What does this fold into?
Amino acid sequence: MSDLIRPQIKALSAYHVADAGSMIKLDAMENPYHLPEQLIAQWLQKMAQAELNRYPDPQATVLRDALRSYMQVPDGQALILGNGSDELIQMMAMAVAQPGRAILAPEPGFVMYKMIATFVGMEYIGVPLREDFSLDLPAMLAAIKQHQPALIFLAFPNNPTANLFDEPAMLEIIKTSKGLVIVDEAYHPFAGESFMSRLGQFENLLVMRTVSKMGLAGLRLGLLAGSPKWINEFDKVRLPYNINILTQISAKFALDHADVFEKQAAEIRQQRGWLLDELKKIPDLVVYPSRANFILLRLQKADANKVFESLKKNGVLIKNLDPAGGALKQCLRVTVGAPDENRAFVAALKKSL
Ligand SMILES: *Cc1c(COP(=O)(O)O)cnc(C)c1O
It folds into this structure.
């Protein structure tokens, strides 16, 4: 029985999430702000009406219509919801998985693309970004030609590098690929650019979003928009009732008060500017540009692991990317928090260098 578990699964380590304890938590791209107090009272009233004894609406129709309108999904394009966008990646992978089929993404990138490829027994092709973390278009096109990937993921902006890829290069990839190209817009509230309005221009283009980074990470809700030709097939591998009733009610309530979240996103973008300016004044740091709610840093002299541990001792948890190695050696990633958290981080960092 010892060979019951596939070797590919045995070789994995489970997705590790650090315990922040009482530390300032700047490791996971969460929005630092909760709902304002008077909205919490209104939200609780809605929650009190939830029929927990009944299965939720399997299509989450009310929420889906609200998301369609709020996210400006073009007419004629279909929409499917997932328990986080991670589940949507998994649904797409399950629908296309077959021996010899591959998922392709630039590297360094979001780790779930590779993990899910492994879960479903697909090959994963990581194509290195250039040194400035821009897309290496010739390398991407060559890899597409060689491997004909069923799915290509382009995170826009990219995690963990925080930059937006060049749009003409992305369009070239979409036009060249015979597989599906998923533009992952998890950081849309902070990016100012989107491929959503291009849906319909390219049959193989899909746009994925999530409410996690806009301030609702606890709900687990992602959405995928694109041609009904694909979405209707993905819907067949979706488990029934994947969006629970508390999420359906809470997310609809949040969209009814979208102005609150937009104000929070504007504050985070403003704080990102402050943080970038402060970090650029620190001599040992390379500070990469950011169009997301986090910033990638590279240490030139001090050891990243030591600085990471020292930050923790000073009560601030960020993400240490050095163990990932390769292009991320000596790199740290910090989420943009509330003003006092960002000030505490900068002070702790100066002490740690
Ligand atoms: C955080 C993140 C997601 C995950 O979204 P969930 O909806 O929370 O599962 C997806 N893509 C990228 C690039 C991310 O950084």
User: Anything to note?
Assistant: The mean pLDDT is 97. Residues 29, 84-86, 110, 155, 159, 184, 186, 210, 212, 222 surround pyridoxal-5'-phosphate (CB under 6 Å). The domain at 51-256 is CATH 3.40.640.10 (Aspartate Aminotransferase; domain 2). The chain has two domains: 7-30+259-352, 51-256.
